[in-house]
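Feature request, filed as a ticket because there's no other form

It would be nice if the structure record came with a short human-readable summary line next to the tokens. Right now we just get the raw output. Example of a typical job, pasted below so the devs can see what we mean:
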Amino acid sequence: MKNIKKSLATGWPSGAPTAPQFREFLSQIESRKITKESFQLFLRGGSHFKDRARIRNIMGDDIIFPDEVSLACNIHYSDEVLLKLSRSMPKTRILQELKKKGFALVPGPPEPMSLEQIAEALPYMVHEQDVQLLKERENIADIQIKSQWYAIKKKGVRRKPKNKNIPLPGVFVWLVGIFLYVRGERIFEDEFLRFDHSIGIGSNTANGLDIGTKLSEVYSLRWPFSYDLDD
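Raw output as currently delivered:
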């Protein structure tokens, strides 16, 4: 048998799913939501991320791993995509900066997704009429969210960021939705954020995200800010 590091306090393998993940897994079994693919990914325990404990120690709950997405949302990541995400994990210096400045780090979907597909994968996050509203806008309808790491500041900023630091609406919906489904935390619950001169998204409540175009009627608008991991 290969050597497996264990915590002296708990005897729990360092690369194994955490106790909360295990409870979530059992809950999904009872509700019959778990799929064969999710079960297989759970058994692998995120094994593609060999330094998972070190990354978690830096980021705490502000990082979400692909296996957590799979368990919470029944979204399956292939070994190829998991390997890609593992190899593209930001370096320690970047992780420390993300944590210090209040960013969340979330994996993209297992394959490129449009806003419509994201809305289908994450029910109740965005309403159909709002998807149609965004689809009508140029340069938004056909843009797909990629299988890569995304980092977004968990609070809006007052000063407009550079264009490369303003996430696409679809990326925003994905990140906020994944954080809610996995962590149960509604980031941007009390904020309405500007994306361009006429599109705003926010008010993350039990009714989902509010997407609108009448920004002149909303006061104290802030901007979303995403970290450019390609820098």
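Something like this underneath would help us a lot:
The first strand starts at residue 103 and ends at 107.
The radius of gyration is 18 Å.
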